[in-house]
Amino acid sequence: MFIISQSIYTINNLFVKIDKINNLYYTIFMQNTNLQIHLKKSGLNDKEAAVYMAVLELGTAFPSKIADVTKLNRSTVYKILMDLAVKGLITELERNKKICYQVERPQKLLSFARGQVQLAEDRLEQTKKIIPDIEGLFSVLSQKPKVRFFDGLDGVLTVYEDHIIEKEPYEMVGYSNVEELMKIFPQSFKKRYVTMKEKIGITSRGIFPSTKFNIDYSKTIYREIDKKFWPKIRIVPPEKFTFTGEITIYGKNKVSFVNFHEQILIGVIIEDKTIADMMRMIFELSWNGIK
């Protein structure tokens, strides 16, 4: 019985020691986790903090071991080690003709943090100095027309999508060889385009070359749409309108130019009130000049 009791006592002591060791490791783990969180707050990024903690825990470490501990690839670890060395947080040593690393004294971290504060203050002062110049350039740039280029069928369809993203009703005007345009328009997109015009409340007027298709354009393409949204059309002799393209003035301040020749599908959108107003005025002159 004495032997059994002694064995039970020994086993109990062993479990107590194991618990103490587990508690110690847990305490160390939590301390290290908290340290890593605070390191990130002091100015290091996630990977830099992980590498710094690995070097601190290992005492003196080779890059390969640091890579194993942090689960980072070696090239990343080498770069971070060089960055930390430049910041003065770790130092490079030679052991057995191999390069290894160890953490510099903790006061270096404080110096690094102070340097970050000073750097931030310097950046703030520099930013304050250049703000007037940037504001001057911004005011000039904001007055310049915004120009976007598109190519291919998807690009040209993007131009037409821009016609129907407006939130409020407006009048669209333009010049178009719609017979040629309908040859490249997918049927599903054509239906969606005219439906969205009706939904938004977009009315339109257009100047087309005189062909049977163009003359009947409204009642064929828009036949399922409320008649008040059918385009109003004026036609000109085909010999005076020979290009396979379209110019559309739309929205509050936009003009689109589209070349829908099968071999050259190109679109351009210019967003500028002065240009849009000028193009609209030219359209009105053309519209009123057609009998």
Output the radius of gyration.
Answer: 37 Å
Distance from first to last alpha carbon: 124 Å
Strand content range: 15-25%
The CATH class of the largest domain turns out to be: Alpha Beta
Annotate the secondary structure layout.
Elements: H1 2-41, H2 46-58, H3 63-70, H4 74-86, E1 90-95, E2 98-103, H5 107-141, E3 146-151, H6 152-163, E4 171-176, H7 178-184, H8 187-200, E5 203-209, H9 212-215, H10 217-221, E6 232-236, E7 245-250, E8 254-261, E9 264-271, H11 273-289
Parallel strand pairs: 4-5, 5-6
Antiparallel strand pairs: 1-2, 3-9, 4-7, 7-8, 8-9
Structure description:
This protein has 291 residues and is an alpha+beta fold. The chain folds into 2 domains: 2-110, Winged helix-like DNA-binding domain superfamily/Winged helix DNA-binding domain (Arc Repressor Mutant, subunit A), CATH 1.10.10; 146-289, Endonuclease, Chain A (2-Layer Sandwich). The chain has helices at residues 2-41, 46-58, 63-70, 74-86, 107-141, 152-163, 178-184, 187-200, 212-215, 217-221, 273-289, and strands at 90-95, 98-103, 146-151, 171-176, 203-209, 232-236, 245-250, 254-261, 264-271. The chain is elongated, with a radius of gyration of 37 Å.
